[in-house]
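pls design
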Protein backbone atom coordinates (compact mmCIF):
# COMPACT_ATOMS: atom_id res chain seq x y z
CA UNK A 1 0.00 0.00 0.00
CA UNK A 2 1.07 3.62 -0.45
CA UNK A 3 1.35 6.36 2.14
CA UNK A 4 -2.28 7.48 1.82
CA UNK A 5 -4.33 8.36 4.88
CA UNK A 6 -5.29 5.34 7.01
CA UNK A 7 -6.78 5.54 10.54
CA UNK A 8 -6.08 9.29 10.36
CA UNK A 9 -2.38 8.70 9.62
CA UNK A 10 -0.59 10.14 6.60
CA UNK A 11 2.83 8.56 6.31
CA UNK A 12 5.97 10.44 5.27
CA UNK A 13 7.69 9.73 1.94
CA UNK A 14 9.44 6.37 1.84
CA UNK A 15 7.03 4.75 4.30
CA UNK A 16 4.22 2.39 3.33
CA UNK A 17 1.19 0.76 4.84
CA UNK A 18 1.75 -3.00 4.77
CA UNK A 19 -0.52 -5.87 5.69
CA UNK A 20 0.78 -8.63 7.93
CA UNK A 21 0.36 -10.90 4.93
CA UNK A 22 2.84 -8.70 3.02
CA UNK A 23 5.43 -8.88 5.81
CA UNK A 24 5.30 -12.49 6.99
CA UNK A 25 6.16 -16.01 5.97
CA UNK A 26 4.19 -17.65 8.77
CA UNK A 27 1.11 -16.68 10.70
CA UNK A 28 -0.36 -19.42 12.91
CA UNK A 29 -0.52 -20.98 16.35
CA UNK A 30 -0.13 -24.34 18.04
CA UNK A 31 -2.35 -26.67 20.01
CA UNK A 32 -2.70 -27.90 23.56
CA UNK A 33 -1.11 -31.36 23.65
CA UNK A 34 -3.37 -34.36 24.23
CA UNK A 35 -3.68 -34.76 27.98
CA UNK A 36 -3.56 -31.02 28.68
CA UNK A 37 -1.73 -29.99 31.82
CA UNK A 38 -1.03 -33.66 32.64
CA UNK A 39 1.76 -33.71 30.04
CA UNK A 40 3.52 -30.56 31.29
CA UNK A 41 7.01 -31.13 32.64
CA UNK A 42 9.32 -29.35 35.04
CA UNK A 43 11.96 -29.02 32.33
CA UNK A 44 12.37 -29.64 28.62
CA UNK A 45 10.96 -27.63 25.71
CA UNK A 46 9.50 -24.23 26.68
CA UNK A 47 5.74 -24.22 26.07
CA UNK A 48 4.39 -20.70 25.66
CA UNK A 49 0.83 -19.96 26.81
CA UNK A 50 -1.16 -16.72 26.76
CA UNK A 51 -0.19 -15.85 30.35
CA UNK A 52 3.46 -15.80 29.27
CA UNK A 53 2.82 -13.12 26.62
CA UNK A 54 2.78 -9.59 28.06
CA UNK A 55 3.22 -6.14 26.57
CA UNK A 56 6.42 -5.86 28.63
CA UNK A 57 8.03 -8.93 27.10
CA UNK A 58 7.90 -12.69 27.53
CA UNK A 59 7.17 -13.61 31.17
CA UNK A 60 8.53 -17.05 32.03
CA UNK A 61 7.92 -16.88 35.78
CA UNK A 62 5.28 -19.64 35.55
CA UNK A 63 6.36 -21.28 32.30
CA UNK A 64 5.67 -24.98 31.70
CA UNK A 65 7.57 -27.44 29.54
CA UNK A 66 6.81 -30.32 27.19
CA UNK A 67 9.07 -33.23 26.28
CA UNK A 68 10.82 -33.59 22.93
CA UNK A 69 8.42 -36.31 21.71
CA UNK A 70 5.42 -33.97 22.02
CA UNK A 71 7.42 -31.13 20.51
CA UNK A 72 8.29 -33.26 17.47
CA UNK A 73 4.58 -33.90 16.91
CA UNK A 74 4.02 -30.12 16.87
CA UNK A 75 7.04 -28.90 14.90
CA UNK A 76 4.94 -26.58 12.73
CA UNK A 77 4.25 -24.41 15.78
CA UNK A 78 7.86 -24.19 16.94
CA UNK A 79 8.68 -20.64 18.05
CA UNK A 80 11.89 -19.12 16.69
CA UNK A 81 13.91 -16.11 17.84
CA UNK A 82 12.31 -12.79 16.74
CA UNK A 83 8.91 -14.39 16.13
CA UNK A 84 6.24 -11.88 17.20
CA UNK A 85 3.76 -13.48 19.63
CA UNK A 86 0.18 -12.20 19.80
CA UNK A 87 -2.59 -13.45 22.09
CA UNK A 88 -5.63 -14.08 19.88
CA UNK A 89 -8.26 -15.37 22.36
CA UNK A 90 -9.57 -14.74 25.86
CA UNK A 91 -9.27 -11.82 28.24
CA UNK A 92 -5.65 -11.16 27.26
CA UNK A 93 -6.40 -10.80 23.54
CA UNK A 94 -4.07 -8.28 21.93
CA UNK A 95 -1.14 -8.69 24.32
CA UNK A 96 2.03 -8.86 22.28
CA UNK A 97 5.79 -9.40 22.57
CA UNK A 98 8.54 -11.14 20.63
CA UNK A 99 10.65 -14.22 21.24
CA UNK A 100 14.16 -13.18 22.30
CA UNK A 101 17.34 -15.03 21.41
CA UNK A 102 18.99 -17.46 23.78
CA UNK A 103 15.99 -19.25 25.30
CA UNK A 104 16.44 -22.46 23.34
CA UNK A 105 13.72 -24.51 21.69
CA UNK A 106 10.12 -23.41 22.30
CA UNK A 107 6.59 -24.22 21.21
CA UNK A 108 3.17 -22.66 21.84
CA UNK A 109 -0.51 -23.40 22.35
CA UNK A 110 -3.53 -22.36 20.30
CA UNK A 111 -4.16 -19.14 22.19
CA UNK A 112 -0.90 -17.58 20.99
CA UNK A 113 -0.27 -16.69 17.35
CA UNK A 114 3.21 -16.62 15.83
CA UNK A 115 3.85 -13.83 13.34
CA UNK A 116 7.12 -14.65 11.56
CA UNK A 117 8.59 -11.82 9.50
CA UNK A 118 10.12 -12.58 6.11
CA UNK A 119 13.53 -11.33 7.19
CA UNK A 120 13.19 -11.72 10.94
CA UNK A 121 15.60 -9.66 13.02
CA UNK A 122 15.66 -7.94 16.39
CA UNK A 123 14.78 -4.46 15.13
CA UNK A 124 11.88 -5.44 12.88
CA UNK A 125 10.46 -7.70 15.62
CA UNK A 126 10.65 -4.76 18.02
CA UNK A 127 8.96 -2.43 15.51
CA UNK A 128 6.10 -4.82 14.71
CA UNK A 129 5.55 -5.65 18.39
CA UNK A 130 5.40 -1.93 19.20
CA UNK A 131 2.91 -1.26 16.38
CA UNK A 132 0.61 -4.11 17.39
CA UNK A 133 0.74 -2.97 21.05
CA UNK A 134 -0.01 0.64 20.10
CA UNK A 135 -3.46 2.10 19.36
CA UNK A 136 -2.82 1.39 15.66
CA UNK A 137 -2.85 -2.36 16.30
CA UNK A 138 -5.16 -2.42 19.29
CA UNK A 139 -7.93 -0.53 17.46
CA UNK A 140 -7.90 -3.12 14.69
CA UNK A 141 -7.99 -5.96 17.24
CA UNK A 142 -10.89 -4.34 19.09
CA UNK A 143 -12.81 -3.64 15.90
CA UNK A 144 -12.55 -7.24 14.68
CA UNK A 145 -13.19 -8.78 18.08
CA UNK A 146 -16.20 -6.53 18.72
CA UNK A 147 -17.62 -7.32 15.31
CA UNK A 148 -19.25 -10.55 16.42
CA UNK A 149 -16.23 -12.81 16.64
CA UNK A 150 -16.09 -12.90 20.43
CA UNK A 151 -14.10 -16.14 20.47
CA UNK A 152 -11.02 -14.34 19.20
CA UNK A 153 -9.15 -13.48 16.02
CA UNK A 154 -8.63 -15.84 13.11
CA UNK A 155 -5.63 -15.95 10.83
CA UNK A 156 -7.43 -14.50 7.82
CA UNK A 157 -8.34 -11.44 9.85
CA UNK A 158 -4.79 -11.05 11.11
CA UNK A 159 -3.37 -11.20 7.59
CA UNK A 160 -5.39 -8.09 6.68
CA UNK A 161 -3.98 -6.01 9.56
CA UNK A 162 -2.49 -2.73 8.30
CA UNK A 163 0.75 -1.45 9.79
CA UNK A 164 2.84 1.62 8.94
CA UNK A 165 6.25 0.36 7.76
CA UNK A 166 9.22 2.76 7.78
CA UNK A 167 12.35 2.33 5.68
CA UNK A 168 14.79 -0.34 6.85
CA UNK A 169 17.27 2.17 8.25
CA UNK A 170 14.61 4.15 10.09
CA UNK A 171 13.09 0.94 11.53
CA UNK A 172 16.40 0.03 13.13
CA UNK A 173 16.86 3.49 14.64
CA UNK A 174 13.30 3.66 15.97
CA UNK A 175 13.70 0.20 17.48
CA UNK A 176 16.92 1.28 19.22
CA UNK A 177 15.23 4.35 20.70
CA UNK A 178 12.29 2.29 22.03
CA UNK A 179 14.65 -0.41 23.33
CA UNK A 180 16.63 2.22 25.24
CA UNK A 181 13.46 3.46 26.95
CA UNK A 182 12.46 -0.15 27.71
CA UNK A 183 15.83 -0.70 29.36
CA UNK A 184 15.25 2.33 31.61
CA UNK A 185 11.79 1.00 32.50
CA UNK A 186 13.24 -2.44 33.31
CA UNK A 187 15.96 -0.91 35.49
CA UNK A 188 13.36 1.13 37.35
CA UNK A 189 11.23 -1.99 37.84
CA UNK A 190 14.31 -3.73 39.24
CA UNK A 191 14.87 -0.89 41.71
CA UNK A 192 11.21 -1.03 42.76
CA UNK A 193 11.36 -4.81 43.27
CA UNK A 194 14.51 -4.47 45.38
CA UNK A 195 13.02 -1.64 47.44
CA UNK A 196 9.89 -3.71 48.11
CA UNK A 197 12.05 -6.60 49.28
CA UNK A 198 14.06 -4.31 51.55
CA UNK A 199 10.83 -2.72 52.82
CA UNK A 200 9.49 -6.10 53.95
CA UNK A 201 12.62 -6.83 55.97
CA UNK A 202 12.82 -3.29 57.35
CA UNK A 203 9.18 -3.32 58.52
CA UNK A 204 9.78 -6.62 60.29
CA UNK A 205 12.83 -5.18 62.08
CA UNK A 206 11.06 -1.95 63.01
CA UNK A 207 8.04 -3.81 64.42
CA UNK A 208 10.11 -6.30 66.41
CA UNK A 209 13.25 -4.36 67.40
CA UNK A 210 12.27 -0.72 67.17
CA UNK A 211 14.68 2.23 67.21
CA UNK A 212 17.26 3.14 69.83
CA UNK A 213 17.99 6.66 71.06
CA UNK A 214 20.23 7.25 68.01
CA UNK A 215 17.47 6.36 65.56
CA UNK A 216 19.11 3.02 64.67
CA UNK A 217 17.29 -0.33 64.62
CA UNK A 218 18.16 -2.20 67.82
CA UNK A 219 20.41 -5.21 67.38
CA UNK A 220 19.33 -8.18 69.57
CA UNK A 221 22.62 -9.99 68.83
CA UNK A 222 25.02 -7.20 69.77
CA UNK A 223 22.87 -5.83 72.59
CA UNK A 224 20.84 -8.68 74.12
CA UNK A 225 20.54 -6.65 77.33
CA UNK A 226 18.07 -4.34 75.57
CA UNK A 227 15.63 -7.20 74.99
CA UNK A 228 13.41 -9.48 77.07
CA UNK A 229 11.54 -12.73 76.56
CA UNK A 230 7.84 -12.58 75.73
CA UNK A 231 5.10 -14.88 74.36
CA UNK A 232 6.02 -13.46 70.94
CA UNK A 233 9.74 -14.03 71.34
CA UNK A 234 12.44 -11.50 72.19
CA UNK A 235 11.20 -7.90 72.21
CA UNK A 236 12.66 -4.60 73.50
CA UNK A 237 12.48 -4.28 77.30
CA UNK A 238 10.18 -1.25 77.28
CA UNK A 239 7.62 -2.80 74.94
CA UNK A 240 4.36 -4.46 75.99
CA UNK A 241 2.26 -7.21 74.44
CA UNK A 242 -1.18 -5.90 73.54
CA UNK A 243 -4.29 -7.26 71.89
CA UNK A 244 -5.55 -5.44 68.82
CA UNK A 245 -8.95 -4.80 70.40
CA UNK A 246 -7.29 -3.27 73.50
CA UNK A 247 -5.63 -0.40 71.67
CA UNK A 248 -7.73 0.00 68.49
CA UNK A 249 -11.27 -1.35 68.79
CA UNK A 250 -13.38 -1.82 65.69
CA UNK A 251 -15.99 0.92 65.28
CA UNK A 252 -19.40 -0.40 66.31
CA UNK A 253 -22.72 0.38 64.64
CA UNK A 254 -23.55 0.66 60.99
CA UNK A 255 -24.63 3.98 59.51
CA UNK A 256 -28.35 4.64 59.76
CA UNK A 257 -29.55 6.40 56.57
CA UNK A 258 -32.30 8.18 58.52
CA UNK A 259 -29.60 10.03 60.50
CA UNK A 260 -27.78 11.17 57.36
CA UNK A 261 -30.74 11.35 54.95
CA UNK A 262 -29.23 13.12 51.90
CA UNK A 263 -25.58 13.62 52.76
CA UNK A 264 -22.90 13.03 50.14
CA UNK A 265 -20.48 10.57 51.71
CA UNK A 266 -17.29 9.24 50.17
CA UNK A 267 -17.66 5.47 50.03
CA UNK A 268 -14.51 3.35 50.30
CA UNK A 269 -14.62 -0.33 49.32
CA UNK A 270 -11.87 -3.02 49.15
CA UNK A 271 -11.41 -2.49 45.40
CA UNK A 272 -10.46 1.13 46.05
CA UNK A 273 -7.33 0.21 48.04
CA UNK A 274 -4.00 -0.82 46.55
CA UNK A 275 -2.96 -4.19 47.97
CA UNK A 276 -0.14 -4.12 50.49
CA UNK A 277 0.60 -0.38 50.33
CA UNK A 278 -1.97 1.44 52.47
CA UNK A 279 -2.80 3.74 49.54
CA UNK A 280 -6.25 4.68 48.29
CA UNK A 281 -6.52 4.29 44.51
CA UNK A 282 -10.01 5.68 44.01
CA UNK A 283 -13.33 6.08 45.74
CA UNK A 284 -16.90 6.98 44.91
CA UNK A 285 -19.63 9.17 46.34
CA UNK A 286 -22.66 7.44 47.84
CA UNK A 287 -25.69 9.69 47.31
CA UNK A 288 -28.62 7.35 47.85
CA UNK A 289 -29.97 6.28 51.22
CA UNK A 290 -29.80 2.69 50.08
CA UNK A 291 -26.12 3.15 49.27
CA UNK A 292 -25.43 4.46 52.78
CA UNK A 293 -27.40 1.85 54.68
CA UNK A 294 -25.39 -1.03 56.14
CA UNK A 295 -22.04 0.74 55.97
CA UNK A 296 -19.60 1.86 58.65
CA UNK A 297 -18.64 5.46 59.28
CA UNK A 298 -14.93 6.27 59.60
CA UNK A 299 -13.08 9.41 60.71
CA UNK A 300 -9.66 10.82 59.84
CA UNK A 301 -7.03 8.72 61.64
CA UNK A 302 -9.08 5.51 61.56
CA UNK A 303 -7.44 2.53 59.87
CA UNK A 304 -9.85 0.81 57.48
CA UNK A 305 -9.26 -2.90 56.90
CA UNK A 306 -10.80 -5.32 54.40
CA UNK A 307 -12.05 -8.41 56.23
CA UNK A 308 -12.35 -10.47 53.01
CA UNK A 309 -9.34 -12.12 51.34
CA UNK A 310 -6.98 -10.77 54.01
CA UNK A 311 -3.93 -12.09 52.15
CA UNK A 312 -4.40 -9.09 49.79
CA UNK A 313 -3.58 -6.77 52.73
CA UNK A 314 -6.01 -4.02 51.75
CA UNK A 315 -5.55 -1.55 54.59
CA UNK A 316 -5.87 2.23 54.44
CA UNK A 317 -5.28 5.10 56.87
CA UNK A 318 -8.29 7.43 56.54
CA UNK A 319 -7.51 11.07 55.79
CA UNK A 320 -11.13 12.24 55.60
CA UNK A 321 -14.54 11.38 57.04
CA UNK A 322 -16.61 8.88 55.05
CA UNK A 323 -18.19 5.46 55.04
CA UNK A 324 -16.78 2.09 54.13
CA UNK A 325 -18.52 -0.95 52.72
CA UNK A 326 -19.76 -3.75 54.96
CA UNK A 327 -16.76 -5.79 53.76
CA UNK A 328 -14.46 -3.52 55.78
CA UNK A 329 -13.81 -2.72 59.42
CA UNK A 330 -12.72 0.72 60.67
CA UNK A 331 -10.24 0.47 63.57
CA UNK A 332 -10.20 3.55 65.82
CA UNK A 333 -6.77 3.98 67.44
CA UNK A 334 -6.82 4.75 71.17
CA UNK A 335 -4.38 6.98 73.05
CA UNK A 336 -1.77 4.18 73.28
CA UNK A 337 -1.22 3.67 69.56
CA UNK A 338 -0.23 5.92 66.67
CA UNK A 339 -2.37 5.61 63.52
CA UNK A 340 0.65 5.12 61.25
CA UNK A 341 2.05 2.45 63.57
CA UNK A 342 -1.30 0.64 63.50
CA UNK A 343 -1.28 0.81 59.70
CA UNK A 344 2.22 -0.72 59.65
CA UNK A 345 1.09 -3.48 62.01
CA UNK A 346 -1.88 -4.43 59.83
CA UNK A 347 0.34 -4.40 56.74
CA UNK A 348 2.99 -6.58 58.37
CA UNK A 349 3.84 -10.13 57.28
CA UNK A 350 3.02 -11.42 60.75
CA UNK A 351 -0.50 -10.00 60.78
CA UNK A 352 -1.05 -11.15 57.19
CA UNK A 353 -0.08 -14.73 58.12
CA UNK A 354 -2.37 -14.62 61.15
CA UNK A 355 -5.39 -13.24 59.25
CA UNK A 356 -4.89 -15.56 56.29
CA UNK A 357 -4.57 -18.62 58.51
CA UNK A 358 -7.74 -17.76 60.43
CA UNK A 359 -9.77 -16.89 57.32
CA UNK A 360 -8.89 -20.15 55.57
CA UNK A 361 -10.80 -22.16 58.18
CA UNK A 362 -14.05 -21.26 56.46
CA UNK A 363 -15.19 -21.86 52.89
CA UNK A 364 -14.81 -18.18 52.00
CA UNK A 365 -11.63 -16.29 53.03
CA UNK A 366 -12.97 -13.85 55.60
CA UNK A 367 -12.09 -12.84 59.16
CA UNK A 368 -14.57 -11.61 61.79
CA UNK A 369 -14.34 -9.27 64.79
CA UNK A 370 -13.85 -12.01 67.35
CA UNK A 371 -11.04 -13.61 65.37
CA UNK A 372 -9.32 -10.24 64.95
CA UNK A 373 -9.41 -9.67 68.71
CA UNK A 374 -7.12 -12.71 69.16
CA UNK A 375 -4.22 -10.98 67.41
CA UNK A 376 -1.52 -9.81 69.80
CA UNK A 377 1.56 -7.75 69.00
CA UNK A 378 4.45 -5.88 70.62
CA UNK A 379 3.76 -2.20 71.28
CA UNK A 380 6.40 0.49 72.06
CA UNK A 381 5.79 3.79 73.81
CA UNK A 382 3.94 6.36 71.68
CA UNK A 383 7.02 8.50 70.91
CA UNK A 384 8.95 5.51 69.60
CA UNK A 385 5.94 4.48 67.51
CA UNK A 386 5.99 7.92 65.90
CA UNK A 387 9.74 7.69 65.16
CA UNK A 388 9.25 4.23 63.66
CA UNK A 389 6.40 5.51 61.51
CA UNK A 390 8.55 8.41 60.27
CA UNK A 391 11.35 6.06 59.19
CA UNK A 392 8.87 3.77 57.43
CA UNK A 393 7.17 6.72 55.70
CA UNK A 394 10.48 8.10 54.44
CA UNK A 395 11.25 4.73 52.87
CA UNK A 396 7.72 4.55 51.42
CA UNK A 397 8.24 7.98 49.84
CA UNK A 398 11.42 6.71 48.20
CA UNK A 399 9.56 3.71 46.80
CA UNK A 400 6.70 5.92 45.60
CA UNK A 401 9.17 8.22 43.81
CA UNK A 402 10.52 5.26 41.82
CA UNK A 403 6.98 4.19 40.94
CA UNK A 404 6.20 7.72 39.72
CA UNK A 405 9.39 7.60 37.64
CA UNK A 406 8.24 4.34 36.05
CA UNK A 407 4.82 5.84 35.20
CA UNK A 408 6.53 8.83 33.56
CA UNK A 409 8.83 6.57 31.53
CA UNK A 410 5.88 4.48 30.33
CA UNK A 411 3.99 7.65 29.39
CA UNK A 412 7.07 8.90 27.50
CA UNK A 413 7.34 5.56 25.70
CA UNK A 414 3.69 5.63 24.64
CA UNK A 415 4.04 9.16 23.31
CA UNK A 416 7.21 8.29 21.42
CA UNK A 417 5.65 5.11 20.04
CA UNK A 418 2.82 7.10 18.49
CA UNK A 419 5.06 9.84 17.12
CA UNK A 420 7.88 7.63 15.82
CA UNK A 421 5.74 4.76 14.49
CA UNK A 422 3.49 7.09 12.48
CA UNK A 423 6.25 9.37 11.21
CA UNK A 424 4.77 12.37 13.03
CA UNK A 425 8.25 12.85 14.49
CA UNK A 426 11.16 11.65 12.38
CA UNK A 427 14.41 10.24 13.66
CA UNK A 428 16.97 13.05 13.30
CA UNK A 429 19.07 12.81 10.16
CA UNK A 430 22.34 12.71 12.12
CA UNK A 431 21.11 9.56 13.91
CA UNK A 432 20.06 7.96 10.64
CA UNK A 433 23.48 8.67 9.17
CA UNK A 434 25.34 7.38 12.22
CA UNK A 435 26.98 3.98 12.12
CA UNK A 436 24.59 1.33 13.51
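designed seq:
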Amino acid sequence: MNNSDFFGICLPPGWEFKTLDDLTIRLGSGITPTGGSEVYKGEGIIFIRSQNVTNNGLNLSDVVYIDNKIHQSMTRSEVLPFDVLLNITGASIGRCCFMPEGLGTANQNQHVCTIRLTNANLYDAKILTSILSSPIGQQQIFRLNAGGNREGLNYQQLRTFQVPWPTSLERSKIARILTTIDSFIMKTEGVIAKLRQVKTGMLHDLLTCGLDENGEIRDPIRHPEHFKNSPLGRIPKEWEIKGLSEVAPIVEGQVDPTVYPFADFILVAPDHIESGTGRLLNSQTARQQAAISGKYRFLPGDVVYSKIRPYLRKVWLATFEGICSADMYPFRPGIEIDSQFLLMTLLSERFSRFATSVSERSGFPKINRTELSFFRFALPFKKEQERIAQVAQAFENKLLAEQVCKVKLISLKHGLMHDLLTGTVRVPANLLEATP
